Amino acid sequence: EQTVVDFERLSEHAAAFQGHDVGFCCLGTTRARAGADGFVRVDRDYVAQAAELARAGGCKHFVLQSSRGANAQSHFLYLRVKGEVENLVQAVGFDRCTILRPAVLLCKRQESRPMEWIVQQFLGVVARVFPTAYSVPVETVARAMVACVLQPGEEKVKVLENRAIHELGKAVPQQGT
């Protein structure tokens, strides 16, 4: 079931967050697309509010896609906001919280991002030599998110860096295999 919500009025959609054991969050935008304030609102505020609603609705395990280098003390807005949202989500008090910190995401986008395309092409070549160092296909991240829920875990908070995402992403077979 898919529910469309208005993130500017997220509290009005609390019912959409009721009755789920697991929450997955990959919400994000770019500073170029939304401006600095919009980026903070989407990547930190919306995510934190969604986590709170999920917890209030009974969610036990929250899985958050963050970013390599996330650090609430960073001087870089992107990394600081990612670190801040990690802290906010952990503070919600889920039974389990898994944070994935992928490196550069390799994917096809509908919108044009020329510099990102150039970086992805370069990293695609680098990935042949160092497959887990600098990038990760989005499909691998998705499989890792599913795998971390299917595997038992005792840790209240688990942070998975890029190499661990690659390894865990192999635990769930690709569609059609």
Automatic annotation (TrEMBL):
Alphabetized GO MF terms: catalytic activity
Record domain NAD(P)-binding: where: 4-152
Gene3D superfamilies found in the cross-reference section: NAD(P)-binding Rossmann-like Domain
Biological process terms in GO annotation: import into nucleus
Any Pfam family the entry gives: NAD_binding_10
GO cellular component: cytoplasm
SUPFAM superfamilies registered for this protein in UniProt: NAD(P)-binding Rossmann-fold domains (SSF51735)
InterPro entries xref list: NAD(P)-bd_dom, NAD(P)-bd_dom_sf
Subunit and partners: Monomer. Forms homodimers during oxidative stress. Interacts (via N-terminus) with elongation factor EEF1A1 (via middle-region); the interaction is direct and competes with EEF1A1 binding to guanyl-nucleotide exchange factor EEF1B2, thereby inhibiting GDP for GTP exchange and reactivation of EEF1A1. Interacts with nuclear transport receptors XPO4, IPO5/RANBP5, IPO7, IPO9 and KPNB1 as well as GCN1L1/GCN1 and LRPPRC probably through their HEAT repeats. Binds NCOA5/CIA.
Protein known as: Protein HTATIP2
Species this protein is from: Lamprotornis superbus
